[in-house]
Amino acid sequence: MSLRGGGQLIQRKTAKTKEEEKERKANRSDEEPEEEEERFDSKEQRLTLMEEVLLLGLKDREGYTSFWNDCISAGLRGCMLTELALRGRITLEKQVMRRRSLLMRKVELKSDAPTGDVLLDEALNHIKKSNQPENVQNWIELLSGETWNPLKLTYQLRNVRERLAKNLVEKGVLTTEKQNFLLFDMTTHPLTNSSSKSKLIKKVQDSVLSKWANDVGRMEKRVLALIYLAHASDVLENAFAPLSDEDYDVAMKRVRFLLDLDPEEEAMKPGANEVLWAVVAAYTK
Known about the structure:
Blueprint: H1 2-26, H2 49-57, H3 72-86, E1 90-92, E2 107-109, H4 118-129, H5 136-144, H6 160-170, E3 177-180, E4 185-188, H7 194-208, H8 221-232, H9 236-240, H10 245-259, H11 263-267, H12 274-284
Antiparallel strand pairs: 1-2, 3-4
């Protein structure tokens, strides 16, 4: 009898806990969305925006990005800022009476709680300890090391692609090899788990084909960000390469629709992430 009664008590507590959780989510305001990292708790190994963009840019067998791609470095820094914003760590300063553009507003710390990702936490720490507030475009340049001020070179994040590749190795997506390029040896990271990249490519393709919403407000923010950031990093074409000519034309037409949107107008819509649109503005201005 006591065991049965104990079981009923546990069930009542569990039911009560679930009800409290539902109420907590229902009362959450639109300005405080549920943090994205809560979605990373599933058994499936989730990738950050930086890892997804790098994975799109990596050659499957060779294990390195194109030597001619000079956009991916800055693109990855935009990924970091967007990821931090989606996880509720940073935001833009509030508007004042005289409305300012997205790129005029400074990045502010919303929460300094660690994300669990070394690169993200490093970027977050730079923003936290910065003596002078900077806008999104300046942070992209500072994190890339593109500054004439020697005092701000400390903000540069080094070996980003290599560190992201190692993260993907730990997640079982890539492996590590050494390749000889006549004058030097280079560590490469060929694809070892094709399913991860296949799912990523399908997600990008579906977002502008079978799951096209024709309304940015109805698109998942993380997928929307991925399209913009992959384009800014010059790796979006890699996701569309396997498509038929007809699907490719449709996909590129819809991507062009997204690129032609005005970030200032989109950022003013309910539920919009201002940092995301500021990053878009920094790349499309």
